[in-house]
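Write out the 3D structure for:
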Amino acid sequence: MKKLCLLILLLLSIPAAIHPPITYAHTNNSEGYSLIEANDHNIDYELKIDLIELGHAINQEMANEQLFNLEIVQDYINSRINLYADSTKVEGTIESSDVEMINDKQFAVINLTYKLNDQPEKLALEYNMFLDDSDPSHANYATVKLDGKQQEGVLSFESRELEIGEASFVQSATQFLLLGLEHIFTGYDHILFVISLLFGAKTIKNILSLVTAFTIAHSITLVLATLNIVQLPSSFVEAAIALSIIYIALINIFNPDSKHQSWLAFIFGLVHGFGFAGILSEMRLDASHLATSLLSFNIGIEIGQLIIVSIIFPILLWLKKLTFKPAKWVIPVASVAILAFGLVWFIERAF
């Protein structure tokens, strides 16, 4: 009877041995292949990775020779592979996928496209697929092509980066100057803060002292934060920036004749500097052009501020000289609107 039971158990185990469950399989020492090539307006990335290991990493079943839920796969890849074109991080989009047999193993073949405005002078790859969550022994054999040059390397737990090319001084300076301009003109909280300061400025000399104090302060914290010397939680910084707007707006509403002091602009400038540094923390700054990048970015911010001041302050002077009574309500009403924006931003960022 005992022998019969053993025979039945053996027969039942045969199908499982022939067709092991693919969901829970783990390859260990998995391999991958990367072919990255930069063109005029995009980067093409052909990524080949062990199909079963990919399924294990994202907790999805990979079967029937196709990739399931490409959106999840794309999100996983973008969270584990950082590709920088001239220091700026770019996100990949899956254009096609397939399955290929390599050395008797199924590999997912994923073709990604990274959109660019121009062909970059430098590419940098940070690779973290599987290394921290499913297979520390994973290795990827990578080839990067850029402007006729080719760089090859093996990406592993100990070596996760690959670079090719070098950005020129002029290209780096121009890129970060434009980035600073873009940041100030799309940073509406910074714009409203500067306008609120102008509401309390009485003379050109007063404006120069306020702008100078604000510039020196945010330049200090911008450098400290970018170099990772001083770091503050982004949520705290963003909430503090909203509070600075609220504070200045309240002064403008309840004490409209007060003259803003440069020490106030300096204190809040320190806070705004950490906010300016936030965008740089998402980039891979070139060590050889670090000083140039920071200086150019700061100059871009200052040019943006000067443009705002040169437009807004003459309008304010004109309004203050008008004898038409409704014009006298423009600044108080604008201050109330700025206060409302500050309160909304603070609630969104703090809670």
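Residues 31-165 form one domain.
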